[in-house]
Amino acid sequence: MSFTESIQTVFQKYAVFEGRARRSEYWWFYLAYAIVNAVLSGLSQALSGSSMGTAVAALSGIIGLACLVPTIAVTTRRLHDTGKSGWWQLLYLTCIGGIVILIFCAMDSQPGDNQYGQNPKEI
């Protein structure tokens, strides 16, 4: 899955918490989100103290809120692909939860079909 395809897929499945997501879909989306976030953060810092800096910071917040549901959804689908429930994301509320989720999301797909659907690599 290419960079643009993965971003389109994530936003087409905006609030779909069923099914499975390949690693490429998950990681390309996160790369795009990180780039946008870094650019807006840099602009906000460079323009701090001005009304434009405040506007960029507000835009960054709006984009963060707009991407919250798709981020949770694609992470759920990615966890499903490794055979885990999306509820594992509750680990984010702990100190080391982010590391555990990172490891789970970096794992290879569970081969064949699982309880969450068909393996996206085989489609």
Structural commentary:
- The structure is a single chain.
- The chain starts with a helix and ends in a 17-residue tail after the last helix.
- The relative contact order is 0.17.
- 60% of the residues lie in helices and 0% in strands.
- The radius of gyration is 16 Å and the shape is elongated.
- With 123 residues, it is mainly alpha-helical.
- The model has no long low-confidence stretch (mean pLDDT 93).
- α1 (3-12) packs across α2, α2 (23-46) packs antiparallel against α3 (51-66) and α2 packs antiparallel against α4.
Strand share of the residues? under 5%
Helix count, DSSP H or I runs of 4 or more residues: 5
Q: Can you give the mean pLDDT?
A: 93
- Could you give the distance between the termini? 12 Å
User: What would you call the quaternary organization?
Assistant: single chain
Number of strands: 0
Number of domains: 1
Q: What would you call the shape?
A: elongated
Largest pleated sheet: none
Percent helix among the residues?
55-70%
Low-confidence stretches: none
Which structural class is indicated by helix and strand composition?
Answer: mainly alpha
What's the alpha carbon Rg, rounded to whole Å? 16 Å
Topology order in helix (H) and strand (E) letters: HHHHH
